[in-house]
Structure formats: structure tokens, C-alpha cells
Design a protein that fits this description.
Rossmann fold, 2 domains, four-stranded antiparallel sheet, membrane
């Protein structure tokens, strides 16, 4: 749905040129929630703004739903942007318009007839749970309600792609949870492809199918969340599963096991091989609706004596790392 190749964007600063995006390649599959995770200044916002050409890249191509945006005229680009919704960190609502008026605005720009527009606005406000707040002005809405209006407005043109620029970073934890749940619901119900940027690991854990980690204008790792978690050296796995250095134990095999689901694999191995499996450390998280965890186990004896148990773990776990 979104394909980025060789993207570069440089800004001129007092101390010289600054490469905000330095040769990024990225592919977002249709229907997935894709997160770009990184600290402030990593280049995330510039990357996102290049996707809908609010920022013109210096080099590279951006293809959305099969259309190369860089090759479009201004008229063509305006048409293409109608199929790319965007929600903002600080809502960007028009203070002089009601919730309904804000959602109506892009429809007015598109030239939709008044009666059809009113029906569409009511439908959108109902979709985000704000039908009863249609007449409220932004000053009368909570932060979460403002963001719901922003989401409804972004969906006005029935986009296939929704871009989210730190959409929950200005919200409290409970409200953040409700907005993320809404985005996930819209993703599944409407088949929306969502590309979001965030500096919060919690956002990735809650709704992302795939993720890219960005630092200093480049992507350092990217892929489906479950694949990255299977790699012991993955920065994402280290960020989610925080285990300390492995202990040194005499006559014991120390092994880190990444599992999905309820973790019954450990008890199954213990029963099948009559081995006393001790859990030394562990971290279990809910990721995009599923459970995953990394457990540090101690099996009595050497790796050779535990070969059969280790083979069963390797056959059934997402990842197994035996410490020397």
C-alpha cells in the first residue's frame, strides 16, 4: 500500500545541512498498522510528512496505492491527498467551528452537496462515538474528544491510508488507550492501512502489526513485530522484554525463550522430560491483542544433558537462546 525507496530530505541550518531523512526504504502492507518508533529528532515527522507530500523530498520515490506521488502535478496531488487521511498530535481543529463543522470542512472543499454532507458527518461522528457532541466547539471538548473529531475529519474522504502524527502523545494514559482501541477498530472494520509515528513503546505494543525503529534519519530495523521479537539482538525485543544479564549457575543450562500465547510450553517440556524447569526472570506483554513473553529458564545439568528438552523448546517457541 505504501512503498518508500531511497527517501532523502535535508534542511539547511545555521551549522550546515541537516539530513532529517537519510536514504529510507520502507514498505507498509495493505491493511496493517505500521509504527515508526524513535526519539525526538529521529526524522519520524519528516518521514510522515513526505508520505503525503506536505514536505517535498530531495530524492527518492513514494508510492501510495500504486500511485507515485512525486510524479503528480499539484492538481493530481490534491486529488491523491483526499485518499490519505491525517491526524495530528495537537488536533489542529478550527476553533470557530463545531465538531460537526470541523468534520464537514474537508467535504465542503471536495464540493459534496449539503444534504449528502450532513449525512456523512453524522455517520462519521457516530463512528468515533461523538454523535451527541456534534454541536460542541473544540473548547468544550476533552482532549480525547478533540482527537476523535480529528479522526472523523481524517476519514471524511474515505481514505485507504491514515497517517498518525504522534496522535496520543498529548493525552493521558486512559484516553490514549481508548484512542488506540478506536484506531485498531477502524483498521479492522474499514480495512484502513495506518502508518503512525510515535516515541512511545506502549503504542507499538498496543496496536502495531509491524514496526520500524528510526534514529538519526535512518531505519535501524524494521519488520513484523512477531519476527523482530524472535531475534534476541533486536532493539525492539530488548525494549519490550527487559531482562538483565544472565546469571552464572553451576551445573545448569540458562536459556531465554520467547513464547506466544499462554506459555504452557514450559510446563509441557517439564512434564515430557521430567526436568525441574525454574523461571529465573521474565517479561510477558500484550501485543496487538495477543500475548507474548520472554522467559529466562534454568534447566538442571549441561546443554548436552538437556538436548531433548531444548529441541522441544526450539520446535515450539518463537525463539530460543542458550547462554554459554
Amino acid at each position: 500500500m505504501i512503498r518508500i525507496n531511497g527517501l532523502r530530505k535535508t534542511y539547511r541550518g545555521r551549522g550546515g545541512d541537516v539530513a532529517a531523512v537519510a536514504g529510507v526504504d520502507l514498505t507498509v502492507r495493505a491493511g496493517e498498522v505500521f509504527g515508526v518508533l524513535g526519539r525526538s529528532g529521529a526524522g519520524k515527522s519528516t518521514l510522515l510528512r513526505c508520505v503525503n507530500m506536505l514536505e517535498r523530498p530531495d530524492a527518492g520515490t513514494i508510492t501510495v496505492d500504486g500511485v507515485d506521488l512525486a510524479g503528480l502535478s499539484e492538481t493530481g496531488l490534491r486529488t491523491a491527498r483526499q485518499r490519505i487521511g491525517m491526524i495530528h498530535q495537537h488536533f489542529a481543529l478550527l476553533s470557530s467551528r463545531t465538531a460537526a463543522g470541523n468534520v464537514s470542512f474537508p467535504l465542503e472543499v471536495m464540493g459534496m452537496p449539503r444534504r449528502q454532507r450532513a449525512d456523512r458527518v453524522a455517520e462519521l461522528l457516530d463512528l468515533v462515538g461523538l454523535r451527541d457532541r456534534a454541536g460542541a466547539y473544540p473548547a468544550q471538548l476533552s482532549g480525547g474528544q478533540k482527537q476523535r473529531v480529528g479522526i472523523a475529519r481524517a476519514l471524511a474522504g474515505e481514505p485507504k491510508v491514515l497517517l498518525s502524527d504522534e496522535a496520543t502523545s498529548a493525552l493521558d494514559p486512559d484516553t490514549t488507550g481508548s484512542i488506540l482501541a478506536l484506531l485498531r477498530d477502524l483498521n479492522q472494520r474499514l480495512g484502513l492501512t495506518i502508518l503512525l509515528i510515535t516515541h512511545e513503546m506502549e503504542v507499538v505494543k498496543r496496536i502495531c502489526d509491524s514496526v520500524a525503529i528510526m534514529s538519526d534519519g535512518v531505519i535501524t530495523e524494521a519488520g513484523p513485530v512477531h519476527e523482530l521479537l524472535a531475534k534476541p539482538d533486536s532493539a525492539l525485543a530488548r525494549g519490550i522484554f527487559r531482562l538483565g544479564p544472565p546469571p552464572v549457575l553451576d551445573d545448569a543450562t540458562i536459556v531465554d525463550v520467547t513464547v506466544v500465547g499462554d506459555g504452557s510450553l514450559i510446563s509441557a517440556v517439564a512434564r515430557a522430560h521430567d526436568v525441574d524447569v525454574r523461571i529465573l526472570d521474565g517479561s510477558v506483554e500484550t501485543l496487538a491483542g495477543g500475548r507474548a513473553g520472554r522467559l529466562r529458564l534454568a534447566l538442571p545439568g549441561s546443554p548436552a544433558s538437556n538436548a531433548a528438552a531444548l529441541d522441544q523448546l526450539r520446535a515450539s517457541a518463537v525463539a530460543v537462546e542458550v547462554h554459554p
